[in-house]
Amino acid sequence: MAGTSPEERLAELGLAVPEVAAPVAAYVPAVRNGDLVFTSGQLPMKDGELLVTGKVGGEVSAEEAYACAQQCALNAIAAVKAQVGDLAHVERVVKVTAFIASTPDFTGQPGVANGASELFGNVFGDAGVHARSAVGVPVLPLDAPVEVEVVVAVRAGA
């Protein structure tokens, strides 16, 4: 992993930084304040469409939700890149919050959130290890099953 950029590691995973997902309301995808970038909640949008809709534990399987969390993380990476220009400037993924729209009896939110967490670890290595919350909620925008927001630290002067 040493010597490879975050985008090269994404390519090794068969992934690429997507276009920044368009906001679905009155906000921006990410804001930089000093050496921190805060993303808005990212939905599992790919090519302008949600991967799936519904509740995890109902219409959406845990495996599908894991893939959704990974797509949310990719979208968050795109939002960060739009703020900092080069993903190599990311010093650390500080905090990840995953919201999982789930049925009342579904308790696997941490496993779903691993879709995002494991991607950040694979892309940023040790700098991708982060604090995290995985929260079950009754509904998310557009009936998305997962939404992920991220805070990253950027190297000083980058």
Description:
The structure is a single chain. It contains three helices and seven strands. With 158 residues, the chain is of the alpha+beta class. A five-stranded mixed beta sheet has the order 1-2-7-5-6, covered by helices on one side. The longest helix has 23 residues, at 62-84. It is globular and about 45 Å long. The mean pLDDT is 95.
Q: In short, what is this structure?
A:
This protein is an alpha+beta fold.
Keywords:
five-stranded mixed beta sheet; RidA family protein; RutC-like_sf; 158 residues; 7 strands; 29% helix; Endoribo_LPSP/chorism_mut-like; 3 helices; alpha+beta
Q: What is the H/E order?
A: HEEEEHEHEE
**Roughly what fraction of the amino acids lie in strands?**
25-35%
- Number of separate strands: 7
- Overall mean pLDDT stands at 95
Largest sheet: 5 strands, mixed
Task: Specify the number of helices.
Answer: 3
Low-confidence stretches: none
Radius of gyration from the CA trace?
A: 15 Å
- Structural class comes to alpha+beta
Q: Which sequence of strands runs across the widest sheet?
A: 1-2-7-5-6
Report how far the terminal alpha carbons are from each other. Answer: 22 Å
Helix content: 25-40%
Shape: globular
